[in-house]
Amino acid sequence: MDIIRGIGQLNTEKKTAIAVGYFDGMHLGHKELIHKMLQYATEHELIPTILTFDMSELRAEGKGRQDLFPREYSIDKAEQMGVALYVEIPFGQIREMSPETFCKTVLADMNGLNAGAVFCGEDFRFGKNRVGSISELSSFGKAMDFAVHIVDEIYLGDEIISTSKIKELMASGQIKRANKMLGEPYSIEGEVVHGNHLAKGMGFPTANILIPADIMIPKNGVYLTETEFDDMRYRSITNVGTRPTVTTDIEATAETHILDFSGDIYGKKIKVRFYEFIRPERKFDSREQLVETVLSNINYAIKSQYSLYDT
After folding, report:
1. Are residues 242 and 282 located together in one domain of the fold?
2. Are residues 76 and 22 in the same domain?
3. 129, 160, 250, 279: which sits with the fewest CB atoms below 10 Å from its CB?
C-alpha cells in the first residue's frame, strides 16, 4: 500500500475510488464504507483509496479532539483490508478551501486524486467551516465527472455506530458495547517502561505503557484484558489512570499485571486488548485492603470465560 502525505504529493494518472472521512477508529461503520469502496474499485478497475486528514494542527491550537487509535492503527487496518493508496492531508492545507476548490484540487484533478468515485458517510462535510454538504458533493461530482456514493449509517440495536458514540461508551466504562461497535476489542500498544515499582513490591509486577495525550483512554479503573507480545497472548488485568506527567505529551498510563508470566519485558512492545470493566479507580484505606482487592480482581480474570484467540 502506498502512503501519501500532503496535497503536493498527489499525482494519480489512473482513476481512483475514494473512501473519504476521518478514520481514527476503524469501527464497523468505517469498515462498511471502505468495503463498499473496495467492491466498486474492483468492479470498475479503479485504485482503491482512502482519503483522510491529519488534525494535529487543530490539537496544537487546542481545538482538536482525541483519537481512538494512533494513525498507524488505521494505516495497518487499511492495508489489511486491501486499500492500495492511503492519503493523509494535513488540515492546514485544506482549511481555507471552498467546497468547490476542495473537490477540484483534491478529488477531481489529475494532479490530485483523479477520482472516478467518492464514497462517504451521511454526515460528511467539507470545505472551509465545513459548509459543503453531500448534496453539493453530488453536484460537483456530476460537473467534474466522478460518481458519489453515500453509505448508510450502521446500527447496533437502535444506536448509530459512530466514533463519538464509542468514545461516550468508553468514558462510562461500557467497554463491551464499545467493542461491539468497533468489531473487535479496543486495544492499546506501546513499549513497556519502568514505573514506581510499588505493585511489584506487593507481589503484582506490572507492565506499564505511557499513553500519548492525543489518544482517548477508557474510563479510569481496572479492566479484564489480554496482553500480547512475542506472538503469545496472556490473560491480564489492567489499571488505566492518570499519573504525574513525564513529558508534555504523556498524561495517562496503563499498568498491566500479566497472569502466569514472570519474565523481564522492559523495552518490549506489547498490545493490550480490553474485554470488560471490573471496577473504578479508588483510594484504599490500607495496603492490606489494596492487596485483597487486587487478588480478587486476579481471581476474577482467572475464572472469566473469554478466548485469547477470538480476534
Report:
1. yes
2. yes
3. 129
Residues 84 and 213 in one domain: no
Domain span at residue 60 reads 2-153
Q: Who contacts 215 (Cβ-Cβ below 8 Å, separation ≥6)?
A: 66, 67, 68, 69, 70, 188
Last residue of a domain, one of 104, 134, 153: 153
Q: What is the pLDDT of residue 309?
A: 45
Cβ-proximal residues to 122 (8 Å cutoff; 6+ apart), any chain: 134, 150, 151, 152, 153
Cα separation, 114 vs 111, in Å, equals 7
Domain count for the chain: 2
Residue 162 has which C-alpha cell? 459512530
Q: Who's near 243: CB < 8 A, 6+ residues apart?
A: 252, 253
Where does 108-243 have alpha helices with state H?
134-144, 163-171, 175-182, 198-201
Instruction: Establish if 309 belongs to a structural domain.
Output: no
Instruction: Assess whether 74 and 135 both reside in one domain.
Output: yes
Look at the block and give the residue holding cell 482517548: 216
Q: What is the DSSP letter of 154?
A: P
Segments of the chain scoring below 70 in pLDDT: 59-60, 62-64, 195-203, 242-251, 305-311
Residue indicated by cell numbers 467546497: 99
* String of DSSP letters for 281-304: ----SSHHHHHHHHHHHHHHHHH-
Do 87 and 174 share a structural domain? no
- Collect all residues with Cβ–Cβ distance below 8 Å to 295 and sequence separation of at least 6: none
- Give strand pairing partners of 211: 252
Residue with cell 479496543: 186
Q: What's residue 83's pLDDT?
A: 98
pTM of the predicted model, to two decimals?
A: 0.87
Task: Answer yes or no: is 310 within a domain.
Answer: no
Joined together, the cell numbers standing for residue 95 give 482549511
Looking at residue 260, which CATH number applies to its domain? 2.40.30.30
**Whole-number Å distance between alpha carbons of 37 and 51:** 12
